[in-house]
Design a protein that fits this description.
The chain is an all-alpha fold and 103 residues long. The protein is built from four helices and no strands.
Length: 103
């Protein structure tokens, strides 16, 4: 029974379940019927805006990288024993976070 928890076997089981779920969902979906109304923009009865509402994804990615580095750094630091070997990792983490904050 322990072989089911090994990574390759678990991946194959997961892929089989995802494929089964995909095929069941595809069978339950109705026939595609494209119309110009379905593919047009809808702005709650108003004409669609021609300008972008946000400047892009750059601010989001900066915040995402900040939290990813922060959480992975804490996991690395927390997974080992406290010793002087962690000081370079901690300094690198601080340097990466400061670089992301300053942009």
């Amino acid at each position: 029974m322990q072989i089911l928890t090994s990574t390759p076997i678990a991946l194959l089981i997961y892929l089989a379940l995802v494929t089964l779920l995909y095929l069941v969902g595809k069978a339950l979906a109705g026939k595609e019927n494209p119309t110009p109304e379905k593919s047009s923009l809808y702005g709650s009865g108003e004409e669609a805006p021609t300008s972008f509402a946000s400047p892009g994804y750059r601010p989001f990615f900066l915040i995402a990288f900040f939290f990813a580095i922060l959480h992975l750094g804490v996991l690395v630091i927390g997974s080992g024993e406290f010793s002087f070997k962690l000081i370079p990792i901690l300094l690198g983490l601080i340097l990466a976070l400061v670089a992301l904050i300053l942009g």
